[in-house]
Amino acid sequence: QVQLVESGGGLVQPGGSLRLSCAVSGSIFSIYDMGWYRQAPGKQRDLVASITSGGSTWLADSVKGRFTISRDNAKNTAYLQMSSLKPEDTAVYYCNAHRAEFGREYNYWGQGTQVTVSS
């Protein structure tokens, strides 16, 4: 059973920084593409950043220049470094692990961690 556990959320003032972590267990972490999604109240869940098993990264336009995604395969952990945070970054952030194999898609989600940006 693949499990994802997020941590690092909290309350931060505008302009501040947070680093989210996503620890993966129960499978071989390095074969998964990892993604960070966020969902604000009343809105859909949107992809914010992703990193492939090979290390290629993608960032949503709204976070480019402020967020960085990375992974440490030795620690089975993905990270989202968030800087210059804005109130509109307030949301529950979810970690996703994805892989495709023999025509099947595998998706696993963490429980989410709340990020609140407010003065």
Describe this structure in a few short sentences.
Helices cover 0% and strands 55% of the residues. The protein has 119 residues and is mainly β.
Structure description:
The protein contains no helices and eleven strands. The chain has 119 residues and is an all-beta fold. It is 0% helix and 55% strand. The mean pLDDT is 96. Strand 9 (91-101) and strand 10 (104-109) form a beta hairpin. The chain starts with a strand and ends with a strand. The strands form two sheets. Strands 2, 4, 5, 6, 9, 10 and 11 form a seven-stranded mixed sheet that branches. Strands 1-3-8-7 form a four-stranded antiparallel sheet, with no helix packed on it. The protein has strands at 3-7, 10-12, 18-25, 33-39, 46-51, 57-59, 67-72, 77-82, 91-101, 104-109, 113-117.
